Amino acid sequence: MSGDSPLPLNERHKEHERHKHEEHTGHEKDQKHEESEKSEVSEKDRRADAAGGERRGIVRDASLSAVLAGLVAVVVSCSGPLLIVLAAADAGRLSDEQTSSWVWAVCVGSGLTCAILSWWTRMPVITAFSTPGAAVLVGSLGDYPYPEVIGAFLVTGLVMALIGVTGVFGWAMRRVPPGVVAAMLAGVLFSFGAGVFSALDSGPLPALAALVTYFVVKRRSPRYAVACALLAVVLVAAVGPGIPAPAGGPGLALPVFTAPDFSLRAMVGVAVPLTVVTMASQNAPGLAVLTAFGYRPDDRMLVGVTGLTTTALAPFGGHGINLAAITAAICTGEEAHPDPRRRYVAGVACGFFYLVTGVCGATLVGLFTTLPTDLVAVVAGVALLGTFSTSLAQAVADEPGRDAAVVTFLATASGTTLGGIGSACWGLVLGLATHGLLTFRPLRRGK
C-alpha cells in the first residue's frame, strides 16, 4: 500500500483508467455534439438555399458546362426528331400555320416542363416531345380529320396523367432489376456512340476533331470536354464544307387553336398507340436515366405533369410531352457538372433553349433542321460517351443478372420495331422475361 493514497496500487490503476475512459467518452460526446450541430447548421443552410429563390439558386449553381449541356440537348432534339414531326405534319396535309403551331406547342411544352420541374426538384429533369409518337403519326395522321386527331392527343394526355398520378407506372418501374434498366439505357445510347465512328466514312475531320479534343480536354478538365469537342466540330465544319444558313427569314411561331372532336376510330387508331409508345419508349427510359445516375425521381409528379401539359397543349397540336431519355443522358452525367446537385441547371437551360426555339420558330427551327446529319451525330455521340460507359458498366456489374442485362442491351441496340413499339420497350420486356426465367423458383409443397 502506498503512503500517499488510501487505495492499493492496482485499484489506483483501475481508478486512473476509469477517469481516462470518462474523459475520452466525454470528448467523443463533445465531438458528436459538435458534428450534430454542424449537420443541423448544414441542413438549415441547405433548406435556406433551396428557399432562397430561383434567381439566387441558379446564379450560384450555374456553370458553363451545364448550360452547354442543355444547349446540346436541344440541338440534338430539334435537329433529328423535329424532322419526324414535320414529316407527320406533311402526311396529315396540315397548313403552314398548323405545322408552325405544332412546333410551337411541343417546344414550349418541353421548355416549360424542363425548366419548372428541374428547378423545383433540383434534378436535371429533361422532357421532350414524343419522337416514337411522331413516327406513329407519320403513317396514320392522314387517315383522320385533324380535329379528331386533336381529340386523340387530348385523350392521350389525360390517360398518361392518370397512369402517372396513380403511381401504377412507377410501381412497375421500381420492380425492374437495376442491371436491366442500365442495359436498356446502354442499348438506347449504343447507336449514338457508334454514330461517331460511322461518320468517319462521310466526314472524318469533324469526328476525329471531336474525339481527339474530347479525350485531350477530359484528361485535365472533364467538365469542359464536351463543350470543347462541340466547338472543335463547329470550327472544322465551318472551315470545311460549311454550315448551311437556315431557310426562310426570321419570324415568330404563333399558336393556332383547333377545337377537338372525338371519335372511337381516332381513339383506337391514334390515342392507343400514341399512349403506349410514349409511356414505354419515352417515359420508361426517362425514369431509368435519372435512376441510373443516383436520383430518386417522383414518377407520379413527373409523368403526371407531362401528361397534363400534353392535355393543355393538345388543341394547339402538341401530340405528346414526356420524359426524355437520350437528351436526358446528356444533361445527367458528369460532363454537365461533377456535382449531381448542380446538374439541374442543365435542365433549366434546356428548358430556356426550348422556349426560345418554340417562340422564335422559323429562324432557329430552320437552323436545326438544316444542320448536317453527320455533324449532329458526332456531337450527340461524343456528348454521350461517358453516360454510355457508365450504363454499360452498371449493366454487367451484377453477375447473377448479367444474362438478362445482355439480352436487354442487344434487343434495345438492335433498333427493332414491332407493332409500332420501339426497341427500348422490347428490350425491357425480353430482359425481364429472361430474368424471370432464370430466377423463377417453383414453390415446393410441404411433405
Task: Offer a quick outline of the entry.
This protein has about 450 residues and is mostly helical.
Keywords:
single chain; 447 residues; mainly alpha; 1% strand; globular
List the helices and strands and how they pair.
Elements: H1 9-50, H2 54-61, H3 64-79, H4 81-91, H5 96-121, E1 127-129, H6 131-140, H7 146-165, H8 168-173, H9 178-202, H10 204-220, H11 225-239, H12 264-292, H13 299-313, E2 321-323, H14 326-332, H15 344-360, H16 362-370, H17 373-383, H18 385-397, H19 402-413, H20 423-439
Antiparallel strand pairs: 1-2
Would you write up a description of this structure?
The protein is mostly helical and 447 residues long. It is 73% helix and 1% strand. Strands 1-2 form a two-stranded antiparallel sheet. Helix 3 packs across helix 17, helix 9 crosses helix 12 and helix 10 packs parallel to helix 17 (373-383). The radius of gyration is 27 Å and the shape is globular.
- Taken in chain order, the helices and strands follow as HHHHHEHHHHHHHHEHHHHHHH
Through-space gap between termini: 73 Å
Average pLDDT works out at 78
Sheet-strand content, in percent, reads under 5%
SSE class: mainly alpha
Specify Rg, calculated over alpha carbons. 27 Å
How would you describe the oligomerization state of the chains in this entry? single chain
Q: Uncertain segments of ≥5 residues (pLDDT<50)? A: 1-7, 32-55
